[in-house]
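Much of our argument rests on the idea that a fold can be written as discrete symbols. The record that follows shows the chain in one-letter code together with its fold in token form.
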Amino acid sequence: MTDTFVVIGGDAAGMSAASKAKREDPDRNVIVFEKGEWVSYAACGMPYYVKGEVNELDDLVAVTPEEFREERGVDLRTGAEVVDIDREAKLVTVETDDETYEQPYDDLLVATGASAIEPPFEGLDLEGVFTIHDMDEADAIEDYVTAHGPETAAIVGGGYVGIEMAEALSARGIDVHLYEMLPHVLQPFGEAVAEVVEDHLREQGIELHLETPVSGFDGAERVETVELEGETVPADVAIVGVGVTPNTDLAERAGIELGPTGAIATDEYGRTNAEHVYAAGDCAEAINVVTGKPDHVPLALTANRAGRAIGQTVTGAPTPTGGTAGTAIVKAFDLGAARTGIVDEDLAREAGFDPVSVTVSASTRAHYYPDGAELTVTLVADRESGKLLGGTVVGREGAKRIDTVATALTSGMTVSELRDADLAYAPPFSPVWDPILTAAKVLNGKLE
């Protein structure tokens, strides 16, 4: 009898797992249930659709539902929500607009993703107030901006979404006010990055309101104001981007254990505490390559890689899902800002390290070669072992150099080993001592 692999969730982790399982074992029944209509889409591209740099929302779809069904042989069922998992009977209960039915499985992947956090604000239900975490929300924002021509926008949250949407709405000719309750934007990137980004945002006309909590929104039918402590400020459209939370309700009801981060606990192969049940993507934990402990980092590559590995595992070739360094990069107008590993020294101490850090600024090209830019690099290491813990970069070019640091973290390199890495040099691309090497050289001097 042919085995059946059931996948709950049709985005990065789920569709990667389904595609890999079907490719490795073409005779296996692979069924994907997706409660919405969109699958395999690039959520990271949504701000650029709102901005107008991506012409059609469909352009963000990597593989269409028809291609999954007709070319890859995946039984993809959209508009179908799994509402229950029976671990003992190895069944899932599925609801559609027309019926409720049960589907048996031999192996099951929970890839239910994450949802945008909705703070307890008044006025979240007003027209013109949005979160942005799925394609329908991105489409709704674009439609609203086009239809109503707002003059002033309130963006709540200074993380990835807030920064990218500030650029997107500014490009649409809207006066943008960004509200962040913490002292800096991009908090996980550290102060050195945040200060550079903040200065640049102000240069681009973004009004920053740091250490400014928002209490809600007000308006007759559409949003008209953002409510602060003791102050009311006009706003014709509002974007709330204060983070995401893993979708774990379905797993919890089935007795699938959560980990210390609140996401679904998994082992190195993506297996949960339930036999033949896996979890991957934004709903699941991954192992942090620096600490060796569970972490929740809802990023696209982590989800795609874990899903692909699980798809191979269920077909008989156990494959680790891989760890995470939390490597991320964000565009802020003309700047690129990136991070990886542990940057916050307090978090490093909590993880048992004695952190030492340096911040240096260096040119991205040879000093005599035109159009170079200053790149600010921060590296953090453990004093006793010399182990590299993390790093950040920010500048008008060269932010992808963070990949060198991420590779070093994944390999468990020390600062001296990074300093001695044989990186490429040519004047149009780098000085002899690449900015990453310069930072490693300076940090190693502090460790000696």
